[in-house]
Write the structure tokens for this entry.
Amino acid sequence: MASYQSLDIKRRSASTSTPPTVRSTGLEVAKLIDVSKCIGCKACQSACLEWNNLKEEVGVNTGVYDNPHDLTPNSWTLMRFSEWDNPDNGNFEWLIRKDGCMHCADPGCLKACPSPGAIVQYTNGIVDFVSENCIGCAYCVKGCPFNIPRISQVDRKAYKCTLCSDRVSVGMGPACAKACPTAAIMFGTKEDMKDQAAQRIVDLKSRGFANAGLYDPQGVGGTHVMYVLHHLDKPEIYAGLPKDPQISPLVSAWKGGAKLLALGAIAFAAVGAFFHHTIVGPNRVTDTDEANAADLAEEANGAEPTPETRTL
Amino acid sequence: MTNAWGDIKHADLVVVMGGNAAEAHPCGFKWVVEAKAHRGAKLIVVDPRFTRTASVADFYCPIRPGSDIAFLGGVINYLLSNDKIQKDYVKAYTNATFLVKPEFGWSEGLFTGYNEEKRDYDRSSWDYQMDEQGFARVDETMTDPRSVFQLMKQHFAIYTPELVERVCGSPRDKFLKVCEMISECSSPTKTMTSMYALGWTQHSKGAQNIRGMAMVQLLLGNIGVRGGGMNALRGHSNIQGLTDLGLLSNMLPGYLNLPTEKEKDFGTYMSTRGFKPLRPGQTSFWQNYKKFFVSFQKSMWGDRATAENDWAYDWLPKLDVTYDVLRTFELMNQGKVTGYFCQGFNPLMTFPNRGKITAGLAKLKWLVTMDPLDTETSRFWENHGEFNDVKTADIQTEVFQLPTSCFAEDEGSIVNSGRWLQWHNAAVSPPAEARSDVFIMAGLHLRLKELYLKEGGAFPDPIVNLRWPYAQPEEPSAEELAKEMNGQALSDVFDPTDPTKVLVQKGKQVDTFAQLRDDGSTASFCWIYAGCFTEAGNQTSRRDTYDPGDTGLAPRWAWAWPVNRRILYNRASSDVSGKPWDESRKLVWWSGERWTGYDVPDYGPTVKPEQAVGPFIMNPEGVARLFTRGMMRDGPFPSHYEPFESPVANVINPKIRGNPAARIFKADLEALGSPDQFPYVGTSYRLTEHFHQWTKHVWVNAALQPEFFVEISEELAKEKGIEKGGWVRVWSNRGSLKAKAVVTKRIKPLMVDGRPVHVVGIPQHWGFIGKTKKGHNPNSLTPFVGDANIETPEYKAFLVNIEPTSAPAVA
């Protein structure tokens, strides 16, 4: 899984090998979410759950239309509803944004991921998680400037929108775009989507939205999920869409200087351990430790095996 | 719909009022989005709440629930007093020029002829002045004070922007902006479409709400044209088919009427259905009524319906009163109903005043439910704590729950809002013991027939003589039924102009209702469906996207009634001389020899323009009615009436409560609440995440909108100490419910008659069965009163109170 060749992988987390270069990389794809055409019907959420066979829990109402209340390991996309009084003209606006992975050209999650091949970026721009390589460390969550990945409490894996890489790989668009009744979600090459957005922006400007524009933030190298916004100057009014998203400096530090330091520390520990082994001899498990472990195993007996009990 | 879904893309202005298309009809709403994106159309939303439709609108104007006629009256007044009407259209294609009887009048909120005791009108004065030949008198100049045009001007003059603001709570500047945008469509080259749904029908004056907008559309010249029309978005798949097939208690298929007790014989019945033209040389299509009626009777009773027995007229039930759902449950409460068949609906969670519904069901001897889903009605006797607090031991009703197949489990046609009959195949087999409704009904019929044949009875004739020509009598196929609705020749049908020419051979399917006869030679169950399943096959299963002129009408996709016509009254898309009003949006025009175009002309195909036959050929006047004569119980013009429960008195006449011509039963009148106890306006509606109470059975939908809530403004929440997401109790004079509170900026208090009016929005998707959290429905609160003409209950405006509370005992 996640080998470079068969899947047109451009980048792979925590890997130093160079991707193949002789294959034609093909076109970059993008999903365009036209917020001005979105009616907040949640057909995209429904399609995502159905296509990906996800089962979201039946929750409660907390006084808003957003359900579930946040992205979860089972809900990879979510309509976020924001009520906003426009101070310029006194108009009330109900801004509805479909939240989910932005598929950054420069993905913070992939950069932060310490597990080789757990996060990959395909040549078409899709950023995908490869579950069997995921160690559940949640560094991707920290690395994401949009706060998208969620860690499952069931299997300790990270989950997020795949941009329906399975569908796209066989020439279909994402399930959410297919289900969208008003074509507020469009899918195609990134260039085509930019052209489409340009037309929409002309229309929106003619309707008085002087700051209408395309959200394709350059701080992350541009994204493969883009928004047409009526108010590009204020993306934060759309349920906190970041104005200038950047990969956290901690990730750069971690993957840059800190990584070197850490590698040094690991090397030091290894050398220390070698000397400890040769001088003191191997660590032995005491009888008490063995007994405790046996008790724990018994307690866990009959319960659903969790990753923790399995490692016992 | 007069028009079609795909036609909405040709509109310059879309007005969504009395509906919430984006939320309740998200798939059809794509055409509005299309009109905006590619035609530059503007969208106006007028609604008590800032809805999801409003979220993509160019302009939003708030309105108090139940005040739509005042608003629309204001629009009509604006158009008339600013001369923003399409005059040539109004003059030639409406009854604006017709003269009305001198006795007709209106004062202090009432038309002439009102009888307070009967809550009804003597409508004899609501008519035209007739000349010696029986034709209506007209004044082409429209200046005669008795002309409909002048009477209309006078009637709507009181609806000033000041009055609109005072009654509707719509800010004056916003109302005027709406008027200005609408008035631009009085140009022959600009059209507006009206999209409405249950936000207009579910009022005690629902039909008049729609009339109000129909008048606006006629004044603008927007009926019969592309991108225009009065477009009713049907609230339930296949509710259009239901009305077409006459499933209302007083109707027969194809909008024929069930006889009343007064119409004791066929002659009497037909005597008021002559539809004699009211203008010289006018086509009056309903003159064919007898052909359609006799063909229906032949479809029902075949050879047993003969000229001698007046086509079995006596076998039809005769109505003493109409048996709408409100009356039926009233009778149930009076203990006058023994058994009840509840097929494909869920009255316990939908019909008004739930307490009365429960009490009624509990008085039945037996109840049969036929539904693909486990409905609350089937379990009305089961205690679910606060969600269905009944004493099971006291209920003796025997319930038979018959599971049926759902739309995806059987084949057949479904009629969409645009009157298109679209065939679908079964995707899967029904689960377990579920059987089709047809199987169940056929089984009932065959067993009853057998009993009647064996044991006799008071009046077995209609049942034992029923025509039953199906290959498998116990389960007629969808194809057989569709063919029967279309109709066939029972003997050779000849050309009336050439009696030697056979038009349809005996045993063949008819091609159109023009081939139906009143001599017993044809049978057709639903004349408007004639043409849907001909000798050329099943027209409703056609799937050709051929669309000349990019009209969005796709004439070879499925089949639309009547005669595959996609836009009704389409002759009106051209001027009197037959030239399109708008060349870029032409539809049907005069070629010099015949009417031609992109749609099937709604007109005699070779009737020359100079013959001056009016384009509204279903009316004996030949023109559209701005003044409806005596055809509606509550007035020939819409007039503002408050809902039966209103926070304010009627400003026109404070003594009038509700619609003065609407029926209300005594106990229900007494159960109305007053604004001092119930100061807030409740209104009910759907959410896009759910479809009625069906989708609460589906896990995905349940996750997307899991729990019952009500919506209130930030101001009301503050006043009452209600927290966002907290529990509230909402109660009316009839019932009480608990819900979560959605506190929102999307609902704002409205200034009505000088004081703020708060709206409490109550969605209608929850119950005590299904995957969602258990919840209530607005019908716990709603008043038991309906529209004056068709008895659609007043779900959209009633009085409630609200307070913070604790969670229900059983959650």
Remarks:
- The radius of gyration of chain A is 23 Å.
- Chain A has a mean pLDDT of 88.
- Chain A is about 30% helix and 15% strand.
